[in-house]
């Protein structure tokens, strides 16, 4: 068993340990994903086309293995064998060459990352749970996985979607009962009573996770956000920032993002760019240009603005961030990241509170979507 020394050493440690099974937060898988996308976009036209073809046929092969598509034809099998050896095996090598299966939890893992891992030939199973639930409630398993979900509820555990209108498919708070639920918080009865109540059957102890979610018609559990992160815009519409942040963070030019807008006319985004990818894209890779200069560069700001629009194509119009700020990285050292690499959004928003207000008041430059603001 190997324990990673930390995010900066992830890829080195994978090559050193060469694991067969990997337990990790989404950050690791996304780092490899971003690296591959950056290489592909900076490659020659022929190399880029080969990599795209490899990922495409790898995805088709994975779809067959997952039981949702027919097997590859004879010609495609030959193509897959060649492209797997030339391209996909090298990507798998970033995980140490021996990885058979990965598991991910601790934060929502975007569907695109799961599908990318499938394409390169490594199945990743996403699970869900809390420390208070010992610590698993649901999990995808090999042979029964659904990208975008956290899988089926474990045997012996029952999930209740509280405050949903009725039945499957309705969103509400995820609550659970079963032998995995803790007895309570040590010497803190009040805190225990806040999260443990009677289930709808009036008999069972039920734990309130604080997470929003639903059970789909396929029996899979879907986690959609945190209740405490829900807020209202000035127009009274509710916003859950998690799906918006997930969409924006799929850009290879954006490393971290926090969306906010409570009691404001619209959302804004705090963006931590991936400067390496941006420098390469705008032609500054070999130039001595400071990050401060990049922050104020029109091409850089235009690139980030277009990436936000592009990746939010499936987001409701009123949820779309209309302004953004470029900020410093969120780290454990500045208390903006938890030990499991989740962003402490309340700390981030409080830290940049004055700048956010200035952005809304038009005192600092950072707006985009001006045409939409006029027409909204």
How would you describe this structure to a colleague?
There is one protein chain. This protein is α+β, with helices and mostly antiparallel strands and 376 residues long. It has 3 domains: 120 residues, no CATH class; 77 residues, Luciferase, domain 3 (Roll), CATH 2.30.38; 146 residues, GMP Synthetase, Chain A, domain 3, CATH 3.30.300. It is built from 13 helices and 15 strands. Strand 8 and strand 9 form a beta hairpin. The C terminus is likely disordered.
Strand order within the widest sheet?
Answer: 1-2-3-4-5
> What is the straight-line distance between the termini?
55 Å
Oligomer: single chain
Q: Looking at the structure, what is the overall shape?
A: globular
Report the major sheet: 5 strands, mixed
Percent helix range: 25-40%
- The helix/strand series, from N terminus to C terminus, equals HEHHHEHEEEEEHEEEEEHEEHHHEHHH
In angstroms, what is the radius of gyration?
22 Å
CATH H level, superfamily name of the largest domain: ANL, C-terminal domain
| Structural category | alpha+beta
CATH architecture of the largest domain: 2-Layer Sandwich
* Count of individual beta strands: 15
């Amino acid at each position: 068993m190997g324990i990673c020394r930390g995010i900066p050493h992830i890829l080195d440690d994978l090559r050193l340990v060469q694991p067969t099974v990997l337990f990790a937060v989404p950050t690791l898988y996304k780092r490899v994903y971003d690296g591959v996308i950056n290489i592909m976009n900076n490659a020659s036209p022929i190399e880029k086309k080969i990599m795209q073809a490899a990922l495409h046929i790898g995805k088709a092969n994975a779809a067959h293995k997952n039981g949702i598509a027919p097997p590859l034809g004879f010609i495609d099998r030959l193509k897959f064998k060649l492209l797997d050896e030339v391209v996909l095996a090298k990507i798998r090598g970033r995980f140490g060459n021996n990885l058979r299966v990965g598991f991910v939890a601790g934060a929502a893992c975007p569907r695109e990352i799961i599908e990318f891992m499938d394409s390169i030939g490594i199945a990743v199973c996403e699970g869900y749970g809390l420390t208070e639930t010992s610590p698993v409630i649901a999990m995808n398993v090999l042979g029964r996985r659904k990208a975008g979900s956290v899988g089926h509820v474990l045997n012996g555990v029952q999930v209740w979607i509280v405050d949903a209108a009725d039945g499957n498919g309705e969103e509400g708070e995820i609550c659970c009962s079963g032998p995995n639920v803790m007895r309570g918080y040590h010497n803190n009865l009040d805190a225990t009573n806040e999260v443990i109540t009677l289930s709808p059957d009036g008999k069972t102890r039920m734990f309130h996770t604080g997470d929003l979610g639903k059970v789909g018609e396929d029996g899979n559990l879907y986690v959609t956000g945190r209740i405490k992160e829900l807020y209202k815009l000035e127009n009274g519409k509710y916003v859950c920032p998690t799906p918006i942040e997930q969409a924006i963070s799929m850009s290879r030019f954006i490393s971290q993002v926090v969306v906010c807008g409570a009691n404001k006319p619209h959302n804004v985004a705090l963006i931590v760019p991936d400067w390496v990818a941006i420098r390469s894209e705008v032609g500054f890779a070999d130039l001595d240009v400071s990050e401060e200069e990049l922050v104020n560069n029109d091409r850089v700001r235009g690139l980030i603005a277009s990436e936000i629009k592009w990746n939010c194509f499936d987001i409701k119009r009123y949820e779309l961030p209309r302004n953004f700020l470029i900020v410093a990285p969120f780290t454990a050292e500045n208390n903006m990241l938890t030990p499991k690499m989740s962003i402490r959004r309340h700390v981030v928003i409080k830290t940049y509170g004055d700048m956010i207000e200035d952005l809304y008041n038009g005192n600092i430059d950072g707006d985009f979507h001006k045409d939409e603001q006029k027409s909204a």
